[in-house]
Design a protein that fits this description.
188 residues, globular, disordered N terminus, signal, Lipocalin_bac, membrane, Lipocalin
Length: 188
């Protein structure tokens, strides 16, 4: 092997050995489901601190998800954020959650739009005992949301929750922080 070839392989090995990575799904812990969720305590507003989500939510600022119980037992959800900046246009969605029987209220199906014939999996995978922080995940390991009752989180807490998410097989290099600044300036 000539010197250039040897140097190229050494450089590639170095790059890949230091690149951020998660456990492979085969060696990662399964995406957990908390034992039970007290829905009354869970209702209310949650600030999105970090997420792996659809491209349409990249660049979200001041993202908040608010839950309330409907009379039929479903969960009304209002997701809102500012697109691109704190003063960007507001995006609002109104998905509806349906708790799966026998899940301890920890597994939901989320219908993004009333006319869609399917629901997306929504797993309450981690929940602090005081209901201050929640991690919502999916078995496919495609989306995840780290949310808090407060708009900001310490760097050490963010690192701890990020490591937990990584232990479930998520590629945490895709986890994006969601900037939060409250109160908001006047709406546009």
């Amino acid at each position: 092997m000539n010197g250039i070839m040897k140097w190229s392989w050494t450089a590639l090995i170095g790059i890949f050995s230091t690149a951020p990575h998660a456990e492979s799904p085969a060696t990662a812990l399964p995406v957990p489901l908390v034992e039970s969720v007290d829905l009354k305590r869970f209702m209310g507003s949650w600030y999105v601190i970090a997420q792996i989500t659809a491209d349409s939510d990249r660049g979200a600022h001041n993202a908040v998800e608010t839950y309330s119980m409907n009379p039929d037992g479903s969960i009304a959800t209002v997701y809102r954020n500012r697109q691109g900046s704190f003063d960007g246009p507001e995006k609002v969605m109104h998905p509806v959650g349906y708790v799966e029987d026998g899940s301890g209220n920890a597994l939901w199906g989320i219908r993004l739009y009333w006319w869609l014939p399917f629901k997306l999996e929504y797993r309450v995978s981690y929940l602090e005992a005081d209901y201050s922080v929640v991690i919502i995940a999916r078995s496919k390991r495609d989306y995840v949301w780290l949310m808090s009752r407060k708009p900001n989180m310490s760097a050490s807490d963010l690192a701890r929750y990020t490591a937990l998410i990584g232990s479930w097989g998520y590629d945490t290099s895709k986890l994006l922080s969601v900037p939060q600044r409250w109160p908001e300036s006047s709406s546009k």
